[in-house]
Amino acid sequence: MLSYSLNIHLICFIGLQLFFFSSISLASASQDTNQDLTQPAPANMAPEAISQAAQDHVTELTREANGTFTITAPNLDNRLRLPQCPEPLSTDIPNKNSLSGTVSVLVRCEPLNWQLYVPVRVQQVLERVVAKAPLPRGSVISAADITVEQVELRRQRGASFASPEQLIGSKVKRPVRLGEIILASDICLVCRNDAVLIKAGNDGLSIITEGKALSDGSLGEQIRVQNNRSKKVITGVVSAVGEVTVRY
């Protein structure tokens, strides 16, 4: 009988212990649930806001540039998870060479120390002189040979011209196809062995004499010319078709 009574008391003791610990666990779980409901997880940065910051940065840089710009930022993956930045995002373009083609914009949240590169597509369109007809080597350009078109900058591979007047009367050094941009390297305003006018002097006095070009030159380039009268060889700057200016 004594053994039976001890067993009953032991079973009751263990039951009370289990009930006590179960109550604590349920209370703790209930408390955790209430905390989750009252304290939601921190918000994430909207991908659209990051893209817009990158696009706005490029737009600001191109505001004073020549031509017409089309600037497009990508739609970032909606699965991107970056904490909401408590301050305005900072933007920069490290190692910027040009604002053409695809430009990588670095977007940073400095307080939270996260950053992301956003590729922004930049299309710059300028008015440029193009060939209205095929131009063979040695031909002299007339107004009928050229026209002005809107051209994307990335098609340009060298110095080009915005005004037809800069080219009329120049000689073609290498063939130019229909619709191609005419580059400075394609023509010479003064060509080797051409007769040229040499304008020499300063702002107050100018002397004009005839000479011969000893090399090809485009607008603004330095070339060597020989004075027909003195036979002296001097260096001047191509200032117009068939004209070289020498400053003293």
UniProtKB/TrEMBL annotation:
Function: Involved in the assembly process of the P-ring formation. It may associate with FlgF on the rod constituting a structure essential for the P-ring assembly or may act as a modulator protein for the P-ring assembly.
Entry keywords, A to Z: Bacterial flagellum biogenesis, Cell projection, Cilium, Flagellum, Periplasm, Signal
Residues annotated as signal peptide: 1-27
Tagged with keyword Signal: yes
Domain AFP-like: residue ranges: 128-187
Places the protein is found: Periplasm
Protein's recorded name: Flagella basal body P-ring formation protein FlgA
Family stated for the protein in its record: Belongs to the FlgA family.
